[in-house]
Amino acid sequence: MLINYIIVVFSFILLSISVLAQDNLSVEALPGEGIYGLLRRHNLNPGDYLNTFLELNKDKLDENLQLIKGKTYLIPTVTVKETAAAKKSTGTFPIFGEKYQEVEFKDELLRGAVFYIVPGHGGPDPGAVAKTNGHQLCEDEYAYDIALRLARNLIEHHAMVYVITRDPNDGIRDEAYLKCDKDEYCWGNKKIPLNITQRLNQKVNAVNQLYEKHSGQYQRKIELHVDSRYSNQKVDIFFYYHPGSNKGKKLGVTLLNTIKQKYEENQPNRGYRGTVSERNLYTLRNTKPVSSYIELGNINHDRDRRRLVIESNRQAIANWLALGLLKDFENSRK
Questions:
Q1: 124: Cβ–Cβ under 8 A, 6 or more apart, which residues?
Q2: Handedness of CA 302, 304, 307, 309 (dihedral sign)
Q3: What's the pLDDT score for residue 24?
Q4: Mean pLDDT across 244-265
Q5: Cβ contact 120:127 at 8 Å
């Protein structure tokens, strides 16, 4: 994962090891050498160490993740890390914040899968805003928190995850009322513009550039938003896909059915009225990966707000979305 460059890019760290940056060897790239060649020259398998290398060298790569002539780079070094019960593969990802930065890789169910998680708005645009109990609620903060929780869940299954909109100091937060700020930026360390067309185009370009690098792989984009309606309009989590995208529709249906099932298990008398429908949105129309645009609730409705301000509810949403994405990935391989 890159903190100041690529927010979350994860690789398959070898079983029973964790990387310690302070022990890494500093080397200079040979003329014309790429990252793969540099890793192989030091007897490291790029499949295991590529994104660890990216994390260590987050400030030393160009916008296309290429080595820059004249710069020195850190080569990953590993050490065995054991738990009391058994050896486990773990990674440290500071972007999730101190409490959540240690991630245990549970299995490889999402090996080969690539996800683009796009929290809505950010920077100069907080999105929908509401006030409750003397606190201001900003859409972008809650979308970002759920996005990080979702990304962390996917990483546990060895997925490669890119968070496109990111914040330099807001990790996963457990508070009910998340402080609003404007310091988010876009992948590539780019300032988010105020102009809405430029802002949307910036995110689209970021995703599409990465998409080309993973040609032939399973790739999905998840965009998270919070709706703003009249205070008496309660809505359930609902999904949009681009008109004519059969895979987008299947993705939305799989996510919806997963959430419906989880509500039936946990709140059998609640009922769930989420929907999956077509919508010709700019980001759905112009991004290349199969996409789902998700509205998490109405920020102005009291019960919908509980879906956001209660930390366990935010985590449940992330858990259920991750489960749906696991099912979609499994379905894609049949």
A1: 182, 192, 193, 194
A2: negative
A3: 65
A4: 97
A5: yes
Write out the two tokens for 209.
């550039």
- Residue 72 corresponds to which amino acid? T
Band of the pLDDT at 225, cuts 50, 70, 90? very high
What are the φ/ψ torsions at residue 190 (nearest 5 degrees)? -100, 135
- pLDDT top residue among 135 and 92: 135
Q: How confident is the model at residue 290 (pLDDT cuts 50, 70, 90)?
A: very high
In angstroms, the CA 332 to CA 129 distance is 37
Residue 217, C-beta contacts closer than 8 angstroms, at least 6 positions apart: 112, 113, 114
Q: Give phi and psi for 161, each to the nearest 5.
A: -130, 130
CB atoms within 10 A of CB 101: 16
- Per the listing, tokens 């249906």 go with 253
Largest alpha-carbon pair distance within the chain? 65
Q: In the prediction, which pLDDT does 21 show?
A: 34
Instruction: Give the number of other CB atoms < 10 A from CB of residue 12.
Output: 20
What pLDDT shows up at residue 47? 63
| Full-model pTM | 0.78
CA 55 to chain centre: 16
pLDDT exceeds 50 at position 18: no
Distance CA 154, CA 175 (A): 23
CA-nearest of 133, 124, 142, 115 to 297 is 142
Residue 40: strand, helix, or coil:
helix
Smallest Cα–Cα separation from 275: which of 255, 291, 302? Answer: 255
pLDDT averaged over every residue in the chain:
87
pLDDT given at position 86: 46
Given a contact cutoff of 8 angstroms between Cβ atoms, the answer to whether 125 and 203 are in contact is: no
Cα–Cα distance measured from residue 252 to residue 238, given in angstroms and rounded to the nearest whole number: 9
Residue 83: Cβ-neighbour burial (10 angstroms; 0-12, 13-18, 19+): exposed
Q: Strand 238-241 relative to strand 276-278: parallel, antiparallel, unpaired?
A: parallel
Backbone angles phi, psi at 180, to 5 degrees: -85, 135
Q: How far is the first Cα of the chain from the last one, in angstroms, to the nearest whole number?
A: 30
- Identify residue 40 by its one-letter amino acid code: R
